[in-house]
From TrEMBL:
Residues 1-107 are annotated as: Disordered. Residues 63-73 have a biased composition (Low complexity). It comes from Duganella guangzhouensis. This is Uncharacterized protein. Residues 26-47, 75-94 have a biased composition (Basic and acidic residues). Residues 1-20, 96-107 have a biased composition (Polar residues). It comes from the Bacteria.
Amino acid sequence: MAINVTSANRTDPVQLNLRETNAARAAERSTQRSETQRTEQTKRDDQDAAALKQRVKENQATQRQSAQANDDAAAAERRATQQADQKADSERRQQQKTLGGTIDTTA
């Protein structure tokens, strides 16, 4: 069987150019889409990192305030204990003076 040359599938230059143009446009859209997705992901990552950094900063400030409050409470308790010890010492000395004055040593 012979092939009819006139009916053979021949692409003309306009169709080839159109196919190439469509393929190039599809490739460009795909590239732009992936770049857009990458940019959006980077933006989300940056926002997440900034939010995390802010939370860490706030947590550190809260922990610092809590530690300062604990230090202040411990210092107040220490001062109260020292005052109670001083009061007990002065009362003991006073009692010793009082007892010493009433002991009869003439026996």
